[in-house]
Amino acid sequence: MCGIAGIFDLKGKKVDEGDVRAMAISLKHRGPDGIGSYAEGEIALGHTRLAVIDLKRGDQPIFNEDRSVVVVFNGEIYNFEEIRNELLEKGHQFSSTCDTEVIVHLYEEMGIDCVKRFRGMFAFALWDTRLNKLFLARDIVGKKPLYYALEEGRLFFASEIKALLGVGLELPINLHSLALFFKYQFIPGTESIYNNIYSVPPAHLLSIDQDGIDSRRYWSPPRPENAIKSEAEYCSSLRETLDEAVRIRLISDVPLGAFLSGGVDSAIVVGLMTQEKSEGVETFSIGFKDESYDETPFARQTAAFFKTRHRHETLEYDWENALPKILGQFDQPFGDASAIAVYQLSKMTRQSVTVALSGDGSDEIFAGYRRYVGRKLVRYYWRLPTYLRKKWLERVSDILPEGTAYYADSFIKQFRLFIQLSKRLEENPNEMLPLAFTDDDFLELLVPEIREQVLSNKENKVWVLAESFSNLDEVSQMMWTDFHSYLPDDILTKVDRMSMAHGLEVRSPFLDQKVIELVLKMPIDLKLKGFQTKYILKKTFQNFLPAGVTQRKKHGFMLPLATLFKKELKPFVEEILLKPGRLGIFNLEYIARLNQEHQNGFRDHSVKLWLLLVFRLWENRGTAHASF
Fold first, then answer.
1. Does the annotation count 98 as an active-site position?
2. In terms of domains, do 71 and 30 share one?
3. N or C: which end of the chain has fewer CB within 10 A?
4. Same domain assignment for residues 258 and 157
């Protein structure tokens, strides 16, 4: 795992190697084991290395035999040994045993279509000196990040936005991205909070030369098919494929362990690891003082069952000093509060190992979220008389008190979430993701001077995405939308930034290409059977896991925000949220009303307050201009 950066002058002007090294140095946390660079004429590439495979000879950039092709790479290619053996048979000469080197040699054989052979997580930049062409590529689900900006004929790219902030770019705020952040808690799609900084989409290749940038998709997820096997056969295929996905992720020349929660996904990964490793597996978990949020007792049960060497900590912070540091790792507003716990989990894990396996991605491919059940129920709910729904059930939902204690499993919470889902789908069938601020809420949040600009802004990319899957059944449509937005832009972004902040590599067997293609092809009824989530996964491993794990309700990795805003985070509201910001774009009276209602306890506005706090902490860094 590493950080990459580069500069390409499309007009052919010479690039200073010192500039790209400075970009790489800003990514040192991603690769604390070394920095390398290359510059020749109009191209400069930088790399900061976290040594995992071939610790002595794997420094980058890496070249082919005649140095006509050069690459900088972030990630892991799990099938590199197979590819390497093929290339050796064809006469290619290798200078290392690391996975990165297969890229330049396979490129010689296949051109840039070589990316289709790589089974792993990656972002890389490849320069072909003969074509004077730069290629940027990102893995199929977006495990590894890659951002770029084009200004005055120069293309800049890097693993994180922070490396682009010091190269002299103009940095006006993207108001459309701002609206999406407050709507969904993250910024979906290729745009960032800055008007001129973009991300390479997952499963895409960018080809850049003096004529500009060409983007194309090289992989698409399969659609669900009708059942062609028995349940037993599907279970057998799934078990075999996941076995292999875990096994190939155990290749490492450094210590390796696993994240372990109280749920089924990480338990399966850990269990399969123990079958492959002769010595004990090291596992790690984070808990909370509030027992209603704490899953560590269940994690300890799983650890004891599989006889792992387990370690856990309770989340504890000096919030005033910790929040700016932790949230600053994202370089733009990012609202998934569970990132705070993942940061501490990663820090603790890195003290013992350099690589950790996780259960990420299972919910999005096996229909693991409760809102998938809700989406299925909506079909029947809409058959009720309109009078009953509108005059009674929806009105009852509006007047029920929320409180600020944990009540994710309560009937009131689930009822309100279901009614909200039904209402937003009724208003817009493509509004698949949960909303923090509705459009009306967001307009009320803004000062009047910029509301008109929001109203006249671009179309919502999430809606366009959902519409493209409208030919699927309603649950699959929601899942595929999540797979292309919530998964890469929230879940994987969170894990990448929080783990790489500590130089920790995280590998996700559920996001193996063979696993994804197998599971997404399965009929939807095998994933959500009746109202049972992850049916085929739980059935496959029902006799493999500790008793009760497959029956336990999904908990989620959540922070007790509602309580925090009444206690530890309350000073932030008074010191930051209720005062004018640097950009001066918020209606302070509206924020004060949100806070008052939250403190009174009738409405839980903790998510809204958290997003406001996240934005204000980013705003205070002063890296954007208010030139909308």
1. no
2. yes
3. C
4. no
